[in-house]
Amino acid sequence: MATLQLKNINKIYDNNVQAVFDFNLEIKDKEFIVFVGPSGCGKSTTLRMIAGLEDITSGELFINEAKMNDVLPKDRDIAMVFQSYALYPHLSVYDNMAFGLQIRKVPKAEIDARVRDAAKILEITDYLDRKPKALSGGQRQRVALGRAIVRNAEVFLMDEPLSNLDAKLRVAMRSEIIKLHERVGATTIYVTHDQTEAMTMATRIVVMKDGYIQQIGTPKEIYNNPANMFVAGFVGSPATNFLHGRIENNSFVIGDLHMELPEKFDSDIKDYEGKEVVMGIRPEDIYSEGIVEGTYPSASFTFQVDISELLGHESILHGTFYDQPLIAKVSTRLGIESHSQTKLTFDLGKVHFFDVDTTLRIDK
Amino acid sequence: MATLQLKNINKIYDNNVQAVFDFNLEIKDKEFIVFVGPSGCGKSTTLRMIAGLEDITSGELFINEAKMNDVLPKDRDIAMVFQSYALYPHLSVYDNMAFGLQIRKVPKAEIDARVRDAAKILEITDYLDRKPKALSGGQRQRVALGRAIVRNAEVFLMDEPLSNLDAKLRVAMRSEIIKLHERVGATTIYVTHDQTEAMTMATRIVVMKDGYIQQIGTPKEIYNNPANMFVAGFVGSPATNFLHGRIENNSFVIGDLHMELPEKFDSDIKDYEGKEVVMGIRPEDIYSEGIVEGTYPSASFTFQVDISELLGHESILHGTFYDQPLIAKVSTRLGIESHSQTKLTFDLGKVHFFDVDTTLRIDK
Amino acid sequence: MDKKTNRLYRIFIYVALFTLAISIIVPVAWVFLASVKQNSEFYGSPWTMPIGLHFQNFIDAIDKANMGEYFINSIVATGLGLLILLVVALPASYALARFRFKGKKIVNLGFMSGLFINVNYIVVPIFLMLLSWDKGISQIIGQRIFLNNIVVLAIIYAATALPFTIYLLTSYFRTLPKAYEEAAYMDGSGYFRTMVKIMIPMAKPSIITVILFNFLSFWNEYIIALTLMPGASKTLPVGLINLMQSQKAAANYGPMYAGLVIVMLPTLILYIMVQKKLTQGMTLGGLKD
Amino acid sequence: MKNKKQERRFIWLCLAPAIILFTVFMVFPTLNVFRMSLLKWGGLSANQEFVGLNNFFILFKDMNFIRSCQNTILIIVLVAIVTLIFAVVFAAILTREKVKGENFFRVIFYIPNVLSVVVISSIFSAIYDPSNGLLNSIIGLFKPENWEGIKFLGDQSIVIYAVIGTMIWQAIGYYMVMYMASMSSIPEHLYESASLDGANKVQQFFKITLPLIWGNIRTTLTFYIISSINLSFLFVKVMTGGGPNGASEVFLSYLYRQAYDNATYGYGMAIGAIVFIFSFVLSAVVNKITLRDDMEF
Amino acid sequence: GGSGKEADTDEKVLKIAGLDGGFGTGGWEAVAKEFEKIEGVKVELEFEKNISDVLRPRIQAGEDIPDIIYLSIGAQGGLTDTMVKEKQIQPIDDLLDMKIPGSDVTVKENIIPGFTDALNLRPYDDGKLYLAPLNYSPCGLFYNAGLFAEKGWEVPTTWDEMFALGDKAKAEGIALFTYPTTGYFDAFFSALLNETAGPDAYDKMMHYDEKTWESEDAKKAFEIVGKLAEYIEPNTVAQANGTDFTKNQQAILDNKALFIPNGTWLPGEMEDAPRAEGFEWGMMALPKVTADGDAYSTTFTEQMYIPEGAENVDLAKKFMAYCYSDEAATLFYTKGKSAVMPTVNASDNIKDDDINKIFYSIYDNGAKANAVGFAALENQVEGVDLTGAEGILYGTVNSVMTKDKTVDQWYDEFLTGLKKVVEANK
Ligand SMILES: Nc1ncnc2c1ncn2[C@@H]1O[C@H](COP(=O)(O)OP(=O)(O)OP(=O)(O)O)[C@@H](O)[C@H]1O
Ligand SMILES: Nc1ncnc2c1ncn2[C@@H]1O[C@H](COP(=O)(O)OP(=O)(O)OP(=O)(O)O)[C@@H](O)[C@H]1O
Ligand SMILES: [Mg+2]
Ligand SMILES: [Mg+2]
């Protein structure tokens, strides 16, 4: 129902902290955009500028092609879940949720229906009469979420709306939000630190760092083709391993291991012949089973496991590889213990190479 | 440095909400206890009672064998990270962290050293002079954490201290907390919704629901031997599948699938012959590759995949199995698409059986 | 369209502000002008402009009201009174606002009822009480110390302002979130330090209100000072009586207004100095709720 | 749970100085006033006759007292309502709106509060002047030639409103400051949230500001009662002397008239006692009526 | 009574407290200095504008009571009135027979006859003098003599002429009458009662004699005042308060009204005020009721007295006596603001070119003098203020002038109040 354009937006706070630099983003109708990035990178700030709660220091914001810089928040038809909840302390949970509807003069019966509906979805029906003070952290967060979803706004802004919920509830809420988005089709911007959420909910992800956009793309693009080392390192958990080595004859060389690279890299690495580059490989793309050994025999090596961390079904192996730290994620089934040795293989079909200086990805 | 005992503790709030029921827990010195449970189950309440911030309605609390019910919070030597941060709004970040040390008359130089140390670990050195108002959500949370870790308290209570941090920072913080715990050896109680945190940090996990303890055990015990359906369903993500069926001749029968159970179940399921039971199986214990097919051929079946959810390296398959919802987690590599069919096998070595009425685990 | 309503709204705001402002500026300017008028200008229409600037009025006022000495007295009484008041009232308000205890209702009721006591009619009993103390003490140490004592006056100012101050502060302390106290307790802070270091700073806006209002009332207080300081040493408002019109005598309007202007200036200056702090929210950003 | 003993000690330590000062300098003298209200006494001699509640019985039949009672109540009600509305609205504007010259307005609005009653009375004497007063001049602009000025202080049915007008003018700044202080502690994010919920400024005022300063408003309602009683006396004394012919007599001016001018000091103290009880009960009632859940942010 | 503090000082100290009022304090200071010289004592003066407020608590406490208080009946704060009602004043009968310090004459001989007979100085019907008179001034109606000359109007001698003049003036847009505040009616009304009812009846009335008050003659006075309502300057009531009463006085200077009841201090009080061209003060006694009746002008005096609890009663009396010396009278007139002592020679101090000369010769021109003041009551009646400045008798004038009350209502209210007072003092 709404398109958004952010053009060259900058935000400098009163204390001269610049929180957002030259932010450019076009959001199509019904998109579900997810902002991710390290704590303090400017996600909330951007959201708050879109909502109209912070002045835009420079740049332009358009909603549905209309310039919004100077439009009051109340006239932007935006519903927002605040990172800090911002519940009305003097109103009951019910009234907190009903507030926005009452203001819009929605008929009483409909308000009641919508609020109770949302409360059911959020599993807070029992608390409708309570004041926020008498709720647990997660319950408060759900009220904050409920306050937004009862509104049929054109744009939804959600700032870490599920961070204080348990995994199960979070999964349930996640799918409720997806359903809501499918039903209402409101353009949504969603901030989260939860990679699963980002991956499963987003039509596009915006990765930020220190106020700058690092990459904009679909979850698949972000995951499979990170634009730079930061994105590669940030998305996925445990983080991507970065290994320094050299390019020699279409091979990537670390220590005495010469890994013959698949053909697809040929053209991109030409220029780096003999130079140092960084190889990025995700822990889950390192195999201990024979699966890829046949394909990339040159990428097999013996790994000294310092710590083996049990993670239910999977284990995380920590160790060093030619003096560089390396983490691999393998099936628990194999029973690899700490302080043992095991044979591992890099899945060279999944690796990326990065320029040492610019940190940008080399391969296309 | 401290042991804790909670004996028959109950908490009834002023509005007659009972938040905690008959809570019993013995915590040994230097333990790292993690509380998990659905939102609103009483975790924070329990923490707050231990801290002395809420009256204990009935029951007894001992720290180092001394009864603490009536001891002032300040005399309990406990450091706490509040779920809602509770930063002093009128003090700078530095002073927020230094306050507890100033009270204890720690020499100025040492305060400074400790605060700067903590700030470095928490990556908030740049913000030491700011007031909390001018921080991002995650930065505030880190200050809240910092305020606790600068103290060398006997007991640390941490209420979701990392919920607003990005994955990378969270991993870093997690290991810092572990290090701190190893160094200081303070008895720690930690509330989290993050299963990885629970699994990797805890010496023991306490699973709560609706104010009742469901199970206390090491992460492995909780994961591998859940006491009841709730624990099985709560720990692990996606959640354990529960399949209703009957026990017939040491087999578990659903529809026309007769799964021959491994011997270890024999004695436990005897009493349930011919009765309905619930089988719990984790999504990751359902294989699409041939790995366990040989071992449990009777547990193979063809699965109609409704949705295949890409999760990076793994995919989540949603569908129904004899009219019961079933979720499996398989390697993305296999490229199973939505609306396709695939052959799956239950790893019967990993399943558990639960009583339909009591929901307790049947197998030992 | 909405810009229009917004515009109207802002126009309304400014109209309202200016209307009230003018309704104040005009009369107040009148007072200032009056303070530089000559006596003969006070008869006839009050709205004429002064013929010249008769600053002699101010000199007369300072002279006649003995402002030099009285000013110091007033400063001491007001300042000391405020100090005592805050030291006494802050803890009491804090305790009343944030704790439950036996007897709280009665204490509350007591202070509350104190609000309705009018100093105008208890000042004589206070005087009689001090006098009897003086009689007692003079037999012991041969000196009277309670009457004509600026410190006692300050104490009594503080005492009479207690109900108002406690009532106001209590109602403010009640609105502060408990979480900050809890955080302080966890940091190992005792009740006292929590109160002093954490809660009182957060009550700054209302403390400023209290200072402002009590400064005003102490500074302008007349009847207590008159009664309890019957000697030669007076406070400013009592001294100011010398400028007032007396029965059947020609009035000295000019110096009177000049005197009144002089007396009101300190309060105004104080207000100008602190008014910005009045609206500095002290409790923002610390909590997630 | 808290250590009750330590807590109690802290509480009473906090309260003790206040209770002592209050008891010595306010409670005892007040009891003395109550005692005197039971006397037939001129105020100066040793000639005191205990008459029990007789003074009070006379009081309830004293039409002049009843008139002062009516006047006082009228003043309390009108001053409270009008001042409250103005003060809250202006406080809201000055704390919530970005207005140019905000500090200027804040200072200006406060000025009447620092002016002494004598000054205010002469200001209003110039404003209410029947021939060349400001008000009459303004009204005169719209009225026909032979317009005769309104005699604000001479007309028995108007005089009390003239006093009320003066009191409101004087009080707005005072209460505005009080409301500004409490408004400033309302967290900004509540307004943000409300504005996203679509609330305009007016709605924000009624739905956020007002409920959240409700506690403060209740407190000030008590202050209105007290200060109306006290200030009306000062203004009446200077502006009208209670006249014309007692038309603007209020509680305390009547108290003075009886205690001093009429040399019935005991009777005056009985009025004092009644005023005390009246205002106490009134504000207890007001307090009860306006009770909502106590609020912390 | 006062306890003997400061008993150790050898030098006797006479403490005088008084009002810093219309006559200023210069006279007192000068007289005190003289007295100090003569008697070799020390005189402490405490003169304040708010002397009632200052003294009241001290008197209530019986502490630190001055030896002489100079504060008139009816002055703001009502302290002296209360002192009288509470019998807190010491009799000073012997004063009259004392020799004036530094001369051979007795006080009695030097005071104008009749001045010490006034009811308000002897309030208890016990034949004793309690308060000493000083600073007398004739009260009457003040007007702009220049205006009368200009218009060619005669100063009215009877009330009929008065009202006729009122009609004439009305045509010119000038009101006949105004008054500063109702407090000024004590002098006005008592003179009027003397005119309508005669001195004997007046005396009875001042003793609260119901019968006399109910007489037609008494009511006549009320009716005359009622009739003035037709001729009142329209802003009078609106300005008849503590802040604005000078505006009513200004009305005379501006030729907006012809007459105002007042005392001799008026010209001094309005010294700085602007005035109509050709303005000249004039003063007359009240017009007569009938052509052959008497015209009265109230003689207003201030009072001083020795309160109960005073320590140096004898010295105080000595000082009082000295006040009636010719030297003192001169000092009071010259150093104070034209305060005229009621001594036989005091009016000699008034020079011929002094405007006061006209005023003080009012009795020489045929007007009779009368004194204000009711007898003191044994029992005050709670809630009934019969004779105060804002009480029933005078305060109601405002209502009569604005026609909020009729003369009959006023009169009835007064009689009702009177009944209560009489009842309580039976
Ligand atoms: N002050 C209070 N008054 C009444 N009930 C309360 C109060 N605080 C919490 N509760 C209720 O007690 C229950 C337990 O709350 P608690 O805060 O301990 O939950 P929690 O386990 O910490 O949940 P979360 O993970 O959402 O923070 C909840 O149902 C909550 O609604
Ligand atoms: N009111 C403020 N004044 C000054 N600086 C601010 C203010 N609010 C935020 N900042 C700073 O701006 C930067 C961006 O803050 P923002 O809240 O947008 O981060 P974020 O991406 O939402 O982080 P988080 O994930 O921790 O919530 C941070 O460095 C923060 O310290
Ligand atoms: Mg944020
Ligand atoms: Mg919690």
From TrEMBL, chains A, B:
Gene3D superfamilies noted in UniProt: 2.40.50.100, Nucleic acid-binding proteins, P-loop containing nucleotide triphosphate hydrolases
Cross-referenced Pfam families: ABC_tran (PF00005), OB_MalK (PF17912)
Keyword annotations of the record: ATP-binding, Nucleotide-binding, Sugar transport, Transport
Residue ranges occupied by any ABC transporter domain in the UniProt entry: 4-235
GO molecular function: ABC-type transporter activity; ATP binding; ATP hydrolysis activity
A GO cellular component annotation in the UniProt record: ATP-binding cassette (ABC) transporter complex, substrate-binding subunit-containing
GO biological process entries: carbohydrate transport
InterPro entries, per the entry: AAA+_ATPase, ABC_transporter-like_ATP-bd, ABC_transporter-like_CS, ABC_transpr_MalK-like, ABC_transpr_MalK/UgpC-like, Mo/tungstate-bd_C_term_dom, NA-bd_OB-fold, OB_MalK-like
PROSITE patterns the UniProt entry points to: ABC_TRANSPORTER_1, ABC_TRANSPORTER_2
PANTHER family in the cross-refs: MALTODEXTRIN IMPORT ATP-BINDING PROTEIN MSMX, OSMOPROTECTIVE COMPOUNDS UPTAKE ATP-BINDING PROTEIN GGTA
Listed name of the protein: Multiple sugar transport system ATP-binding protein
Biological classification of the source: Bacteria, Bacillati, Bacillota, Erysipelotrichia, Erysipelotrichales
UniProtKB/TrEMBL annotation, chain C:
Keyword Transport: yes
Entry's localization field: Cell membrane
GO biological process: transmembrane transport
CDD domains: TM_PBP2
Membrane topology (UniProt): Multi-pass membrane protein
Coiled coil: none
Signal peptide (residue range): none
Pfam families referenced in this protein's UniProt entry, alphabetically: BPD_transp_1
Residues annotated as domain ABC transmembrane type-1: 71-274
InterPro entries the UniProt entry points to: BP-dep_ABC_trans_perm, MetI-like, MetI-like_sf
Residue intervals passing through the bilayer: 12-33, 70-97, 109-133, 145-169, 207-233, 253-274
Keywords: Cell membrane, Membrane, Transmembrane, Transmembrane helix, Transport
GO cellular component: plasma membrane
Family: Belongs to the binding-protein-dependent transport system permease family.
Protein name, as recorded: N-acetylglucosamine transport system permease protein
Lineage: Bacteria, Bacillati, Bacillota, Erysipelotrichia, Erysipelotrichales
Automatic annotation (TrEMBL), chain D:
Coiled coil: none
PROSITE patterns: ABC_TM1
Family: Belongs to the binding-protein-dependent transport system permease family.
Ranges annotated as spanning the membrane: 12-31, 73-95, 107-128, 158-177, 221-244, 264-286
Keyword check for Transmembrane: yes
Database matches in Pfam families: BPD_transp_1 (PF00528)
Protein name: Carbohydrate ABC transporter membrane protein 1 (CUT1 family)
Protein species of origin: Breznakia blatticola
Chief place of localization: membrane
Superkingdom assignment: Bacteria
InterPro entries per the UniProt record, alphabetical: ABC_transporter_permease, MetI-like, MetI-like_sf
Domain ABC transmembrane type-1: 69-286
Membrane topology reported for the UniProt record: Multi-pass membrane protein
Record flagged with keyword Disulfide bond: no
GO biological process: transmembrane transport
GO cellular component entries: plasma membrane
Compartment list: Cell membrane
Keywords annotated in UniProt: Cell membrane, Membrane, Transmembrane, Transmembrane helix, Transport
